[in-house]
Design goal:
311 residues, mainly alpha, 0% strand, 14 helices
Amino acid sequence: MFFDNFILIAQQVLVLFILIGVGYACGKFKVITEEASKKMTDIVLYVVTPCVMVNAFQREFSFDLLGQVFLAAGIALAILILSILLTKLVFHDKDIARRKVLQFSVVFSNCAFMSLPLQKALLGDEGMFFGSIFVAIFNIVVWTFGLVDMSGDRKMLSAKRLALNPGIIGFVASMIIFVTGVQLPVFISSPIGHLANLNTPLPMLIIGYYLANAQLKKAFTDLGSYVALALRLIVIPVGTLFALAPFGINRNLVIAFVIACSAPTAATCTMFSAKFNRDVELSVGVVASSTLLSIVTMPLVVSLAYTVCPA
């Protein structure tokens, strides 16, 4: 069963990596430029991701489902808090710039760009539903704790910055639509659905572009980065699986969260590193190397999840 699951999931991951390969080629041949990649990222963050969330929450309201939303949000928050505590225990480098990058790279996965397409492919609309909840909690934590921890300045914490985050806006709008039971008319829901469908190709092209311009040497010559990669790609997702599996929690929730946790390091790591004068070269290397390694680790970890949580 494990092997069958591995082949199925590897095929889905391979589809994503072929799209990444297209982005890589576009980057190498200058079809996608730095400016174009930034604009594409803005489109995904400000348009596509909110549409994904609204689309995922177009479900019939029930108190049972609302309870699952709160349960999923609580579990997502617990995973991130425990991941933060784990990094504080593991990394004690005196070089603050390096330590902050390694800690951030472990805690924050690419749970939107890499995970949502795979959750959709493997689990359908319910996978996207739970994946969107994880992304919402991720956005809250990364723009509060992540921002303050990477910058070292509590003054960076801003209610306005959090409130204007597109992921948060999308989640709040989705929850309002879900709780009120509003069914969007076709002339609105159809464009939202089309935009949501861009969530697979556009992020993969962006990731491919950044891989084309990444320097992997720093990540593969830094012992700490190997520890960070092991924690990010193996320890946290497998730990999440075995922590949740015994409690009879919704199977699709467990698998969706394992997928989110098995994703490579978020590109936000490099963005914050550059902004706050941390080790940018190391951050680029860890983001790129974790993305490359995830073509093997994601199918293995998610296959394990399917074996531990059979239908």
